[in-house]
Specification:
Layout lengths: L6 H18 L10 H12 L15 E2 L2 E2 L6 H10 L5 H14 L6 H17 L2 E2 L6 H10 L5 H9 L1 E2 L5 H14 L4 H12 L1
Antiparallel strand pairs: 1-2, 3-4
Length: about 200
């Protein structure tokens, strides 16, 4: 964390950066489905907010009962994930689940990998996830169980898939919801997006 910012401050500033990524078109310049593309997204979202923005972690991390890939094997894991196929819905979600289990960054994995996932869907299928249609609790529970059984997360995401890829309302409401999933205040996130779009 930089400049003594709170996690809420970081989320708010990062949401602004996410919106700017789409408004500038820079989101379309990243490599799709690669570890480099993921690191570039992370850097764009968290530059100036985390000192490790865009850098793969060199510490072990866990969340609840989930222990993520050891940093000692992380580079090898990212190479393997990058090579996974991504030509259909099932393959794309399976690749996403593996990247979630790798959890390459100390913080900001969820926000970063959801954008990474949407870029893959858009390139390969001409679709994106309408994240505002995804129930937070259902999604988090499905993601927690996904390493053992990915049918649940596939169902959650399939129901929210849309071909309305360039609709600013879908994109920006989706960004707000992605940050709400991570804990940003619901009212703040949607008020910010509504004021931005008005």
């Amino acid at each position: 964390m930089m400049n003594n910012l709170t996690e809420t401050d970081i989320d708010k500033k990062s949401l602004e950066k996410a919106v700017a990524l789409f408004e500038s078109g820079k989101i379309n310049t990243f490599e799709v489905g690669s570890a480099k593309g993921l690191c570039d997204i992370h850097f764009a979202l968290f530059d100036g907010l985390y000192e490790f923005a865009g850098s793969v972690r060199q510490v072990d991390i866990s969340k609840g009962y989930t222990r993520f890939c050891s940093w000692l094997y992380l580079d090898k894991a990212l190479e393997s994930i990058e090579k996974m196929p991504q030509s259909n819905f099932d393959e794309i979600v399976e690749k996403y689940v593996e990247m979630n289990m790798a959890h390459p960054f100390r913080e900001g994995n969820g926000r970063t990998t959801r954008l990474w996932l949407d870029l893959i869907f858009k390139k390969e299928l001409g679709k994106v996830i309408s994240w505002s249609m995804v129930d937070k609790r259902e999604y988090l529970m499905a993601m927690e169980r996904s390493p053992l059984k990915d049918l649940e997360i596939k169902d959650v995401l399939r129901r929210a898939l849309t071909d309305d890829c360039d609709n600013r309302l879908v994109i920006f409401k989706g960004l707000a919801h992605s940050y709400i999933i991570e804990g940003l205040d619901h009212k703040y996130a949607y008020d910010y997006i509504e004021s931005y779009l008005s």
